[in-house]
């Protein structure tokens, strides 16, 4: 999740909340979660807002 946090420029806790809240897809591997690259792209494309 640290890599995803760096890409998104947010904290690891923010990524953790997004995954556990169901807003971002992730795969559980043992006791940790892996976030596929397409899931990050999908989340970021859906989170865009237009700034006036």
Number of helices: 3
Spans of 5+ residues with little confidence (pLDDT < 50)? Answer: none
Strand runs, count: 2
Strand % is: 5-15%
* Structural class based on helices, strands and sheet pairing: mainly alpha
> How far from one another are the termini?
32 Å
Principal-axes shape call? elongated
Widest β-sheet, arrangement of strands: 1-2
Please give a quick description of this structure:
The protein has 52 residues and is mostly helical. It has helices spanning 2-8, 12-20, 37-46, and strands spanning 27-29, 32-34. Strands 1-2 form a two-stranded antiparallel sheet.
Overview of the structural elements:
The structure is a single chain. With 52 residues, the chain is mostly helical. It has helices at 2-8, 12-20, 37-46, and strands at 27-29, 32-34. Strands 1-2 form a two-stranded antiparallel sheet.
Could you name the key traits of this structure?
52 residues, mainly alpha, 3 helices
Task: Set down the secondary structure blueprint.
Layout: H1 2-8, H2 12-20, E1 27-29, E2 32-34, H3 37-46
Antiparallel strand pairs: 1-2
Helix pairs in contact: 1-2
């Amino acid at each position: 999740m640290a890599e995803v946090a760096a890409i998104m420029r947010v904290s690891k806790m923010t990524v953790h909340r997004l995954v556990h809240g169901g807003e971002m897809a992730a795969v559980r591997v043992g006791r940790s979660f892996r976030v596929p690259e397409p899931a990050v792209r999908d989340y970021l494309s859906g989170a865009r807002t237009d700034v006036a």
